[in-house]
Specification:
The protein has 5 helices and 6 strands; from the N terminus they run αααβββββαβα. By secondary structure, it is an alpha+beta fold. It has a single domain, classed as Cathepsin B, Chain A, CATH 3.90.70.
Length: about 180
Amino acid sequence: MSEPGVELVYHEKQRLELCAIHALNNIFQDKLFSKETADEICKRLAPDARINPHRSVLGTGNYDVNVIMAALQNYGFAAVWWDKRRSLEKLVLNKIHGFILNIPSSVMLGFVSLPIRRKHWIAVREVYGVYYNLDSKLKSPVRLGGENEIRKFLKEHMSEEPCEMLLVVQKDVEEDGTWWNVAV
């Protein structure tokens, strides 16, 4: 049985290598992006490439950060790369729409975990005053809690190697830098 309120949270589950698309849709809490829209972005980013460097050669997804950034720009948002040397305490959480993390992930063959690690995009964001882990590999969203819990969650993931984080902010917030509190 899922937690009360979690059924109101939009959550796409993993399909093929489409974690970047799932992360974007989970950040926006709506199905705005598809494999077709991501493939169009790939073509726009590398119009003359025979083998597109922004996705899997097999056509199963595995989109790179450039596709995520371009997709966000289409909706007036920006991705701010997070420098791990900075303190998470300086984040102005109410200016940040969500977080997209690129984390190491085990490769599964059925129920067997293979000794191979790949990169996987996950989304984390606040919905109705509560932060949720919206990883598409999860059966349902996982409630993280409030500001203290999200900072703890992010700190734990950022301490893992290799893990990268993008802050998803509105374009004007990126431009004026209000996602960052220099006074703290």
